[in-house]
Specification:
- This protein is an alpha+beta fold.
- The protein is about 35% helix and about 15% strand.
- Strands 19, 23, 24, 25, 26, 27, 28, 29 and 30 form a nine-stranded antiparallel beta sheet that branches. Strands 5, 6, 7, 10, 13, 14, 15 and 16 form an eight-stranded mixed beta sheet that branches. A five-stranded antiparallel beta sheet has the order 3-4-8-9-17.
- A hairpin with an 8-residue loop joins strand 1 and strand 2.
- Helix 15 (about 500-525) crosses helix 17 (about 565-575), helix 16 crosses helix 17 and helix 18 (about 585-600) runs antiparallel to helix 19 (about 605-620).
- The protein is globular and about 100 Å long.
């Protein structure tokens, strides 16, 4: 018997919200999209939406800090000084502000204001470089037909090519099979698929005129002294360096309309209106960009220009772990005008511009000084050659069209370089174990010293011997950095901070975690240390599930560590070791974690800099436990030493999260690893270059078509609209149906704009101004309780009905300030109707420091279900707003969600949650771990304190980790037992950066 089949539906429902191009097959799908992507955010919830059955408050004495008042002042350590100075006031005081600066309010309201650079002020000009009057509109772009899809015949061809090549990454053979199947369905209509075969597809993509920055190559070879006989093999080898013109790549970035509103055109200094406190965020907010503008503007020909910092990054990567023989050396470029959120969001603001050569030789000759020098200098010579087309524009302005449509005169300049420590050693031409930024000796890196600078290094090279340079200054005297070939280029100043390798992989994983293992072995012996390490692993594995938290089912015992593994371990490691290590070790971890989370903030203020320095001072103080116990012989470690430069680097370059090597490592996937997997593996580099070029062309074509308004709606909806217009054109009277005409699918009006409940303006999918919004899941659970008595039985809460009545009293009488327990039950409303139970809710909140959308919004799910993934129950914890007038934890309580449900009372819908309350153990965080301690709240009859809250009072999910103590925990405790098996918990402020902001 043939199965029932559904035909393809041409029905298309447009979203209807301004600037949202989504279309849907059904109204239900569109409604779901509205609720998730365009929620109507209401006012802040009233605190009366929280109902307790009992409150147990403990108010012990306030804990004192460990340092005296005033310790949070920024310490001007010698290795934080600018080049050539040891004066703290020069390093940390605000530069003089010129009198001709004009302060401008920035953003909504008057909370922030900016001082923009008065000379390099990005004045629009015409195509010849003549400045335009203020307020002049941009020069219109060349007129193109709205139907010009060249080299594609139509939209179907373009979107097919993009889908197959970019999104699906289909192989050539599979493309041929798909096109043949497609052709088979069209033969009866005497029609053909958009492409003949994969060759036709590739040829069309290659003919795309935009985004066409071709790959070039150059051959490099050793040209130094050669022995008369027995010439070493590596001396005769020629190496290919493949690259694209970075000048053209950067011009394409500047002209990208997608970046028009996400770009800073002028260096600026940003201040809070309240107290005139300065803050740093993107690169152009830092002192380095301002100082560069000051230097450039000394030439009167540059006045009114736009400064464009060229950010570079390089890092070797292996595409095949199995063989280990497939290594590549990509070089990336970005521009400092693009904001950090765009660079981190991988919106093509980082582009690959080269594959550098990696000379290799036999093990016998690998340590030959001549070979090592050749390999290092080859890097610098190659980068200098690749960037040579940018050099003229570093002193003479050139005219470039920007994404906002205006032409501007542009001055380029080498910007920060993103690299890990191994790459920094190569870049700075220094000896390993020395610092690339300062001249501290490797035996005592944290000793105060001057910063390195180009002119000082060149003077030393002129005067000192090669051996003295190596031993006394850590300089490799016969190497020349590529930056010396460019104006204002000083590699020591341009070394960017690297959170991933310096802090997460370096100091945390390679140092601190390793030292804990060494300490346990040193103090307890091998056998007992292994037993304790096994318990630490069980503690890590027993941590409860949490949105975005990677679990470690077997602890941290795995071979291949990634950056994400290290980040995940940072979130749960501190409570796991407490009880097995001395208090000073716990405090050292706490101080370092707080340092990491502070420098990772999206916006860093003057007060944050003070907190960063104070956390670093505490870390340096408490890490001494490792030296005093004989675990560590020295703290003179380059990655750990780099922490002392962060305060200065933030002042120079803004928030470090926009210059982290995690950005380039992520780019490896799209630019190197995926193209390699798509290759035949034989001479793969050439195929990888072609793949990258085609991807760039398709991306550029999408931007071009989108800018011209040719990609509105979906491909199907656009076709239906065209058919509708064609039918109307051919029908004399469109109001009279034609019985003989073919049926054309209905296309709903795509031009309608839905305002929702926002009467003051449109709702879009851009930056959202609300801090948090919670909504229930879309589908209620049909097999769960349908009435309050049934829910009371399901949750084993006998007095749930009375709790609900007190909750309703609060909803009906929001102005009544009495505690719920004082309300006579007789005055509380009764409810006998039906309820709907849900297994989850979603919280959408503003968290720009975490992985989030371009507007800084993040969504997570809060679970409350009797069975999760067919394994065990899961009942998450949440932050509950209880006092909106108090910031942070002072205005919040912690609760565990036992059930989400909704009901209608007096024609008003009430989305709610049944919760178990936690009590704060004190009015401040624990002084050792820095985390708040909470304990389950109990009523006078020793039952759990239960309440019902409106979901509007929920801020977001909270993560609790048990206080394990010094005892070995049972092997039987699983992660889903965590909240029930223990009676005291840490509120994990390290669960993510947003939680850190709330619970610090």
């Amino acid at each position: 018997m043939p199965i029932a089949r559904n035909d393809h539906s041409s029905l298309q429902f447009p979203c209807g919200y301004l600037r949202c191009a989504r279309h849907f097959k059904s109204q239900g799908g569109r409604k779901k999209h509205w609720n998730t992507s365009h929620p109507i955010f209401g006012p802040a919830p009233a605190t009366t939406g929280v109902s307790h059955t009992a409150t147990v408050e403990e108010q012990p004495e306030v804990l004192d800090g460990y340092f005296p008042a005033g310790h949070d002042d920024i310490s001007a350590g010698g290795d934080n000084f600018p080049a050539g100075t040891s004066d703290p006031s020069q390093a940390l005081n605000e530069p003089d502000i010129p009198d001709d600066l004009n302060a401008e309010f920035f953003g909504l309201g008057d909370r922030l204001y900016r001082n923009y650079h008065p000379k390099l002020n990005a004045r629009p000009c015409n195509v010849t470089g003549q400045f335009l009057p203020d307020g002049a509109p941009p020069t219109p772009p060349p007129i193109k037909s709205p139907d010009d899809w060249a080299p594609y015949r139509n939209r179907v061809e373009f979107e097919t090519a993009e889908f197959l090549y970019t999104r699906n990454q289909m192989s050539a053979g599979d493309i041929n099979v798909l096109l043949d199947l497609w052709a088979a369905t069209l033969l009866k209509y005497n029609d053909k698929p958009p492409f003949a075969d994969h060759r036709d597809l590739y040829k069309t993509i290659d003919a795309t005129p935009v985004g066409d920055v071709k790959w070039q190559s150059l051959k490099v070879q050793y040209t130094g002294e050669r022995p008369e006989t027995n010439v070493l093999p590596w001396m005769d080898q020629a190496h290919d360096v493949w690259y694209r013109d970075p000048h053209e790549v950067i011009r394409n970035m500047l002209g990208n309309p997608d970046y028009a509103t996400e770009m800073d055109y002028r260096p600026y200094r940003e201040y809070l209106t309240d107290g005139d406190e300065r803050q740093w965020q993107d690169l152009m907010s830092g002192d380095w960009a301002w100082n560069q503008a000051e230097t450039i503007s000394e030439d009167p020909d540059t006045l009114g220009s736009t400064f464009v910092p060229v950010i570079l990054g390089s890092d070797k990567t292996t595409v095949s772990v199995a063989t280990g023989a497939n290594d590549y050396y990509p070089l990336y470029v970005s521009i400092g005008n693009v904001r950090n959120n765009v660079r981190r969001a991988h919106r093509d603001a980082v582009a690959i511009i080269g594959f550098l050569a990696m000379p290799k030789t036999t093990e016998e000759h690998a340590k030959d000084p001549k070979f090592r020098k050749f390999r290092r200098q080859l890097f610098h010579s190659s980068v200098a050659k690749i960037l040579e087309n940018l050099r003229p524009g570093m002193t003479t302005p050139e005219v470039v069209r920007f994404g906002d449509g205006h032409y501007r005169r542009v001055i380029y300049g080498l910007g920060p370089y993103i690299a890990d420590y191994e790459e920094q050693v190569l870049l700075a031409c220094i000896v390993r174990n020395w610092c690339p930024r300062c001249m501290s000796h490797p035996d005592s890196l944290d000793t105060k010293s001057l910063c390195r600078r180009r002119d000082h290094t060149e003077a030393l090279v002129e005067e000192a011997t090669y051996g003295a340079l190596w031993m006394e200054y850590g300089i490799v005297g016969d190497l020349v950095p590529f930056t010396n070939d460019f104006p204002r280029g000083d590699i020591h100043e341009l070394i960017a901070p690297d959170i991933l390798h310096q802090l997460i992989k370096g100091t945390f994983k390679d140092h601190l975690v390793k030292w804990v293992g060494q300490y346990l072995q040193h103090v307890h012996g091998t056998k007992e240390a292994e037993r304790i390490q096994a318990d630490i692993d069980r503690r890590i594995a027993a941590v409860a599930s949490f949105a975005g938290l990677r679990r470690f089912p077997e602890g941290r015992g795995f071979k291949q560590w990634t950056g994400n593994d290290s980040k995940a371990l940072m979130k749960v490691y501190l409570p796991a070791i407490e009880g097995h290590v001395p208090t000073d070790v716990v405090r050292a971890f706490r101080a370092f974690l707080e340092f990491c989370y502070l420098v990772r903030r999206n916006i860093i203020t003057e007060s944050t800099l003070g907190q960063i320095q104070e956390a670093l001072d505490r870390f340096h103080h408490y890490r001494e436990i490792f030296e005093s116990t004989g675990v560590v012989l020295t703290f003179s470690l380059p990655r750990q030493h780099s922490c002392s430069h962060y305060v200065l680097l933030i002042r120079l370059f803004g928030a470090p999260n926009g210059l982290c090597s995690s950005i380039t490592e992520t780019k490896h996937i799209k630019a190197v690893k995926e193209p390699w997997r798509r290759s035949s593996r034989y001479k793969a580099l050439g195929q990888m270059l072609v793949t990258n070029q085609r991807l760039e062309k398709l991306t550029a074509a999408r931007i071009d078509f989108k800018t011209r308004g040719m990609l509105n709606g979906t491909c199907l909806s656009a076709t239906l609209k065209a058919l509708k217009r064609l039918r109307l054109d051919k029908t004399p009277d469109a109001s009279q149906p034609n019985e003989n005409s073919a049926t054309v699918p209905i296309l709903f009006n795509a031009d309608v704009t839905i305002q929702g409940d926002n009467e003051e303006g449109e709702i879009d999918n851009g930056p959202t101004l609300v801090q948090a919004h919670v909504q229930l899941a879309k589908t209620p659970q049909r097999k769960r309780a349908r009435t309050i008595p049934e829910l009371s039985t399901e949750l084993s809460i006998p007095n749930l009905y009375n709790v609900l009545r007190r909750f309703l009293f609060e909803q009906v009488h929001p102005d009544d300030q009495r505690p719920p327990s004082e309300i006579p039950l007789s005055r509380c409303p009764r409810f006998e109707g039906k309820i709907q139970v849900f297994n989850s809710a979603s919280s959408t909140f503003y968290a720009p420091s975490d992985c989030s959308g371009i507007g800084g919004m993040r969504r997570e799910h809060i679970r409350a279900c009797p069975i999760w993934r067919n394994e065990a129950p899961r009942y998450d914890c949440v932050f509950v707003n209880t006092d909106a007038s108090v910031e942070g934890m002072g205005g919040m309580d912690i609760a565990r969600i036992m059930c989400f449900f909704s009901f209608t009372f007096n024609a008003v819908s009430h989305p709610c949650a049944v919760v178990r309350w936690f009590d704060k153990a004190s009015d401040g965080p624990d002084q050792d771990t820095g985390m708040w301690i909470v304990t389950p709240s109990f009523d006078t009859d020793h039952s759990f304190s239960v309440g019902i809250i409106h979901i509007d009072s929920i801020y977001r999910a909270a993560h609790l980790i048990p206080i394990y103590g010094a005892q070995i925990i049972s092997r039987d405790i699983k992660h889903h037992d965590s909240y029930d098996a223990f009676r005291a918990f840490y509120l994990n402020k390290f669960a993510d950066h947003h939680a850190f902001e709330i619970a610090s």
